[in-house]
Structures are given as structure tokens and as C-alpha cells.
Amino acid sequence: MDNFSVLPEGCISQILSMTSPRDACRSSAISSGFDAAANSDSAWEKFLPSDYRQMICRSVSPVVFFTKKQLYFSLCDSPLLLDGGKLSFALDRESGKKCYTLPAREVDIAWKEDSRYWKWISLPESRFPEVAQLLHVCWLDIWGRISTAMLSPNTTYTAYLIFKIIDQRHTGLESLPVKASVRFVNGEDEYEDNNSSTVFLKLRTLRSVGGGQNGRLPQTRKDGWMEIELGEFYNDVADDGEVEMRLREVSSSKSGLIVEGIEVRPKVGV
Prior knowledge:
The chain is of the alpha+beta class. The chain contains seven helices and 14 strands.
């Protein structure tokens, strides 16, 4: 501790910038010298992605901040709408790595422009101007693609479908097993069911699920939406392509699903 106390603030900031946002916040309690270094712009600049200025320029709304630390946590807690609302961008609080959400309008959904099957509505709890509400369909097929160049390198990502189910007005979703998949796209490869996993969009009782039907269950998010994991992938430093995230069920009639979008974010604990 005594050795650190004699170092210039700039040197301490440089050291802290090579740790993590969590470590920088904790170190501010050590001493007044550490507090100044841990809150310095030079330290928090390193925790922000290298292209954060471009992200701010693409934001639909003005981004106001007074320190880089304030900007960092603002990007963690308040996702930016980019490119006229076609994309949502945020940072993972623990690591500072990039998170993106593709809104329903930018996701491919079978029959989504046919008003007999889907309709577009606005919900105050959604970050996007519109979400997709399923009226009635047998062929449920939702998929989105994202460029790996947009994501943080050397990172394991998990993809999620963000959705809600309309209480008392849904059918065919109670215990229906649905296929989910995440894959790197090579040319025009076709979707293959045998490379997918089983998930459920709604499950009230274990008794409602048939024997031998195991799969991932949805979770409630802090923002009030539900999410179901579609799968995960590792984004290498040299990867330059697209990842496709998909949810599919084509065997029976369904209604009452509301789709907000597909999110990719760093896997927890990795």
C-alpha cells in the first residue's frame, strides 16, 4: 500500500485501467489518491469500447455526460437506440463488452407483414417504437442475424428472444416445445432442426409437459419482459461473418405472443 501511495495519480490510473470496472470502483475506497485515480477519465476511457464515440453519434437521442465513468454506467443502464431505432446498444456492466438488441422490425418473422397473422403495436414498456403481436399462426419462425465484427472479440455471447405472452388471450404456448438455435452463417446454409435445442415459452406446471420433454425455460427480466435463451457462440478476434439466432415451431396453432426483439450479450461468468 505504501509503495502505491507514492505513485503519481496518472500512474495509478494507468494501472487501474488494466483491471476491470468492478475493481476500479472498489479501489476508490482505499485512499483519496486511489479515489481520484479510480474516477479519472483516463482510467474509464479504457473500459469503454474503442468506437464509443461513433455509437454516440448514431444515437437517436443526445447523450449527455460529464465524466467517462458517468458515460460508462449510463451505457450500462440506459441502452442507446441507434440508426433511427433500428438497433439498441448497451454495455455489460461487469466487463464493458458490447450488447445489442435487434428490434422485431429488424428481425425476420414469417408472415410478419400479413395482418391476418401479426399486427404491430406500441407498448410503453418497450424501448422500441413497435413490437410484433402474434394473432394466429401455425408456422412460427423468428430469426435474426448480426455481424460478428460489431461484437467484442474473444467473448462468449448468449442470444435471447425478448417477448411477452398475453394472459388469458394466448393459445398453443402453454407447454409447447419450441426449437431454438444459434449458428455461424456460411453462405446460404439452410436451417437444420437437428442442430437446435428445445425451449419453452411458457410453463405453469411440470405436469403440463409430456414425459421426456426437457428444455430451457424462460426467465423474467428486470424490465418486465421475458427472455428465453436461444443459444451461445464464441466470437473470436479474427471472426468476420454473421451469426444467426432462431426460434421455430411449425406443428400447431399459436397466438398471443408479443415479440420485442433478439438480444445478444456476453455470457455471465465467462
